[in-house]
Design a protein that fits this description.
4-stranded antiparallel β-sheet; mainly beta; single chain
């Protein structure tokens, strides 16, 4: 098997080599918990060479659009091997200590690290390491966060796990936390907050040597202050311990793309794929001028982001456009076959169990 570093480098190089990546539908979704087969948003997932790990997530499985429909959270851990077929066969391999969604998952070595999130009992500060051995999930506890945290973004940068934005102790936040994976006993440290407005549901990644970046997200309404969207980004440089701003993405017509609700994944040390997210105009209107019929519109009315974007060396490129990936709250898992786009919602409340494989048009 290729090492994870080699595998991501090869995929990244092919993504950058030109051409439009192929997008292939993949059958199969976990069905070990009642209701999960309808698809989930905000689950935890990671790729390891030839298999995927997936855990948690949430949906509205009963009377989805009814005003009193109850959100359900999930806790089982599943794996699926990626092979030459266009189907994933999922196997339950364990259970999380609690049902969770809306946190962050990153891969580190042969483990998936998950942090924060929320469930029926509220936001959590727990952090776990999941390793698959002999067909079973081994779940270890890592140092807890200094606050409850959900709907944030995160990434691994040179062996340090960064988390930024989201709701910290229930409030929209500019806080940034990091954990040194080589010295976890030290616990989480808080670094300088990112500039500008708080960012709930942003995306994040590694923008090169010692550089953590954050894009998108929104600040909810507060009293008489209306909600705001963030289109630009900010980059933290560990060498200078300072933040700088960065340009946001634009579409074919030069219009700003809102990345809030999307998902990001590094394919090399300095290149990041971003998929999905909500539409800036529809979402901002819903935040500031909520309407009673908001949930009743057809999927296309919400105009979720159909672009797959690549961020590299400070520049954005559109590498694909498809309604299949126009979803919010999806999860990405990078394997030796390519990148799997898992779950998410097609419109508010409505999840999807459909999985797609994004892979380079050329292979080495």
């Amino acid at each position: 098997m290729k090492s994870l570093l080699t595998m991501t480098s090869i995929i990244g190089i092919n993504m950058l080599a030109g051409g439009i990546p192929t997008l292939t539908p993949v059958d199969g979704f976990p069905n070990g918990e009642a209701g999960i087969d309808q698809g989930v948003s905000a689950c935890f997932a990671g790729g390891f060479n030839d298999f995927i790990v997936m855990a948690g997530g949430c949906n509205f499985p009963v009377n989805t659009l009814a005003p009193d429909s109850k959100k359900r959270f999930y806790k089982d851990i599943y794996t699926a091997h990626t092979d030459a077929t266009d189907r994933l066969v999922w196997t339950k391999v364990g259970t999380l200590p609690q049902a969770m969604a809306y946190g962050v998952a990153v891969t580190y070595g042969n483990s998936m690290i998950i942090a924060g999130g929320t469930n029926d009992n509220g936001s959590v500060k727990d952090v776990y390491s999941i390793t698959i051995a002999d067909g079973k999930a081994l779940v270890d506890t890592l140092p807890s966060l200094p606050c409850t945290l959900d709907n944030m973004a995160g990434a691994m940068v040179e062996g340090r796990f960064y988390l930024a934005g989201g709701n910290a102790d229930g409030k929209p936040s500019n806080r940034v936390l990091r954990l040194d994976m080589d010295n976890t006993a030290k616990g989480w440290e808080e670094i300088a907050p990112f500039p500008g407005i708080a960012r709930v549901q942003p995306v994040a990644g590694c923008a090169g040597k010692g550089r953590f970046c954050l894009f998108g997200g929104f600040k909810p309404a507060d009293g008489e202050k209306k909600a705001e969207l963030a289109f630009d980004g900010c980059i933290y440089d560990t060498a200078t311990e300072s933040w700088t701003t960065a340009e946001g993405a634009t579409d074919d017509n030069g219009e700003k793309i809102f990345l809030g609700g999307g998902i990001a994944q590094n394919v090399t040390d300095d290149s990041i794929i971003v998929v999905g997210g909500v539409n800036k105009d529809v979402f901002l209107s819903a935040l500031n001028n909520p309407q009673p019929d908001y949930l009743s519109h057809p999927i296309e009315w919400y105009r979720f982001n159909p672009y797959t974007l690549l961020y590299i060396k400070g520049e954005w490129k559109i590498i694909a456009k498809s309604d299949a990936t126009a979803r919010a709250g999806a999860t990405l898992a990078l394997t030796e076959r390519g990148m799997y786009v898992i779950g998410g919602e097609l419109k508010p409340r409505v999840r999807t169990p459909h999985i797609y494989l994004l892979e380079p048009t050329s292979k080495q």
